[in-house]
Please model this.
Amino acid sequence: MNYSNLLLFASSLSLCLTAAFLLLSIRKNFIYGQSFRVDFLAKIEAARFGNMLRKHNLDPQELVHSQPLAGIENQLRNCQGCLKKTECDQILEKSIVSNNELAFCPNHCSILQQNS
Model:
């Protein structure tokens, strides 16, 4: 076996190992991303924000998979820091709610934008 064949074999082996490492890293990253989104969805569902999204005819699960999480996280923070929680609870208990009744929500405008 000459040196060029040995070099070609070593390069091929190195390339295969690199490709395998990249595929494993991508798979791990994908699984972590899915897990993160599931946990994030649980946070949304635990807060009033999940109910508010449904009142605006938005599916929280679909939103988590279609919108940037940073924006949703800001909306979740707005919801958690809202001072109108009793009014919010009263509105969310109703079966039918108009857009005017939801206007008090600090996320109302951004939710309407996501809905269109």
